[in-house]
Amino acid sequence: FMNKNLIFHQLFEKESSTYTYLLADSVTREAVLIDPVIETVERDFKLLNELGLNLKFILDTHVHADHITGSGELRKLTGAKTGLSSSYEADCTDLQLKEGDTVQFGKHTIEVLTTPGHTAGCLSYKLNNMLFTGDALLIRGCGRTDFQGGSSENLFQSVREKLFSCEDDTIIYPAHDYKGFTYSTIGHEKRLNPRLNEKISKDQFVQIMKDLKLDLPKKIHEAVPANMHCGLASEDSHIPIISAKMVFEDLQDYKVIDVRRMDEFNNELGHIS
Ligand code: FE2
User: Fold this and answer.
1) Residue 252 C-alpha to ligand 1 middle, in angstroms?
2) CA dihedral of 112, 116, 119, 123, whole degrees rounded to 10
3) Which residues are CB-contacts of 7 (< 8 A; sequence separation ≥ 6)?
4) What is the CA(167)–ligand 1 centre distance, in A?
5) In a structure prediction context, what are the per-residue pLDDT tens digits for the chain, which is 273 residues long?
6) 5 C-alpha to ligand 1 centroid (Å)
7) Which phi and psi (to 5°) does residue 25 adopt?
8) DSSP helix/strand/coil, 43
9) Separation of 64 CA from ligand 1 center, angstroms?
10) What spacing in Å lies between the alpha carbon of 203 and ligand 1's midpoint?
11) CA 251 to ligand 1 centroid distance, Å
């Protein structure tokens, strides 16, 4: 059996429909969490203790826009090291991960794959025949590509050239599912993914993504800045997080310097002149 002595739990956070994955070596008791959510830190911490596990690493697949990561809180509770793509230049992470890096727990080794497109810094994590794809590849879907340096062209390349080059029986564990599915396989997504199956061309995919016209995630203005600091922005940096709404409601109290990229500056939310 490929994953001998592996403890594996797929955990769910229902508000953001996020999957958190617990991986551990049943002999050495060393554990890794992938994509923990701040709301479920207590649950995850309790489970680690109940199973007698020693959390070594907390890995985020990307800087999430729809929820705040539990990585900073869990690091405080356990002393585990946090990992995120080096491309975000986040100031809080212990491991700045890039293509080809490995993360070791017990006798198990996770391989780091860069899979940009949903965001510029999206990573996938591979442990033998298990592939944790974040939002790059979802079950019969994929993450949106319209903010955080997202790019439909890059996502197409990441999925079709990199992820689809894994064996067909590789099991896909995504960061989210909104319909109750828990896993898929590379073979099934190659055939059945309505956006990225092997019959879809790059141009078709770019058009599909352009036509989505999605609302921004509810928590984006809080979650993204917080997640650049492992979910602990206000506490660690002493700089409070102010939502766009607060600025609009109380403009005279603030001087605003807008340092967003051009595409964000010109987006549908508008900007302060
Ligand atoms: Fe995401």
Assistant:
1) 34
2) -10
3) 22, 23, 24, 25, 26, 31, 51, 53
4) 25
5) 578 999 999 999 999 999 999 999 999 999 999 999 999 999 999 999 999 999 999 999 999 999 999 999 999 999 999 999 999 988 889 999 999 999 999 999 999 999 999 999 999 999 999 999 999 999 999 999 999 999 999 999 999 999 999 999 999 999 999 999 999 999 999 999 999 999 999 999 999 999 998 988 888 888 888 898 888 865 555 566 666 677 777 777 777 787 877 877 887 777 776
6) 30
7) -90, 120
8) helix
9) 5
10) 23
11) 30
216 Cα to the center of ligand 1, angstroms = 12
CA of 221 to the centre of ligand 1 (A): 13
Q: Are 82 and 58 in contact (CB under 8 A)?
A: yes
CA of residue 62 to ligand 1 center, whole Å: 7
Q: How far is the CA of 67 from the centre of ligand 1 (A)?
A: 9
For residue 83, give the H/E element and its range.
Answer: strand 81-85
Whole-model pTM above 0.90?
no
Using the structure block, give the residue that is written with the tokens 């992938």: 34
